[in-house]
Amino acid sequence: MKLDVLVFAAHPDDAELSCSGTIASLVTQGKKVGIVDFTRGELGTRGTPELREEEAKLAAQILGITIRENLGFDDGFFIIDRTHQLVLIQTIRKYCPEIVLANAIRDRHTDHGRAAELAREACFLSGLKKINTFSEQGKKQEAWRPRVLYHYIQDYHLKPSFVVDITPYWKTKMESVQAFKSQFFDPESDEPTTPISTPEFVNFLEGRAREMGRMIGVEFGEGFIKATPPGIRNLFDLL
């Protein structure tokens, strides 16, 4: 199944927190979008891997995405090596996306920056014909390199290359975030408090989205980083 956009995320909920407004916008435009989580978030203080899997399914339904998969990498300990690269290359070739969205290039959680680099290298290597990978049915896959890779912004304040207006999709974004009930503020929960489970964290999310939106003159926005400047043919494309 070919996707228009493939979202890589180190943990279930990374995509929802950082780019689900953009995902909802793309789905509304008729684009096929998929999320591939690297780990099950098994090192998370709250919840369980099984619970987070169910929450991820609910968030996927809310966003209306085409597929959601989990690669089962080790939370906190996956590395950039041939084994992990080949799994990502196989995934990219399986879905042949035009655009890949991936974790922040630098962030508080060490998995995020490492996942960003893993995705960047895999997007390049996936285009090399002499790297052999095979589908689940044992068929040799064709080389495929996405046209562009964008990194979403997470906890750290990073300067975006561009900002997407998500104002019409703010409610959908927050519904997808709140699908991960085990991870965020729940007055009925007796689990330990974490930096993202406080009531103030929701305020941070809204403040960040409003800040990004203000940069482009809208109410809510999501920022993305591109390693090289976006190319245009006409200045009026930027209006």
Q: How would you describe this structure to a colleague?
A:
By secondary structure, the chain is α/β, with parallel strands linked by helices. The protein contains six helices and seven strands. The chain has a seven-stranded mixed beta sheet with strand order 3-2-1-4-5-7-6, with helices on both faces. Helix 4 (110-125) links the parallel strand 4 and strand 5. Helix 1 packs across helix 5 (170-178), helix 2 packs antiparallel against helix 5 and helix 3 (82-95) packs across helix 4 (110-125). It is globular. It starts with a strand and ends in a 14-residue tail after the last strand. The mean pLDDT is 96.
Average of the residue pLDDT scores = 96
Largest sheet: 7 strands, mixed
- Approximately how much beta-strand content do the residues carry? 15-25%
* Rg estimate, integer Å: 17 Å
Q: Span between N and C termini?
A: 34 Å
Low-confidence stretches: none
Report the strand count: 7
What's the helical proportion of residues?
A: 25-40%
Helix-strand pattern, N to C?
Answer: EHEHEHEHEEHHE
How would you classify the helix and strand content by structural class?
A: alpha/beta
Number of helical segments with 4 or more residues: 6
How are strands sequenced across the largest beta sheet? 3-2-1-4-5-7-6
Rough shape? globular
Summarize this structure as a short list of keywords or feature phrases.
239 residues, alpha/beta, 7-stranded mixed β-sheet
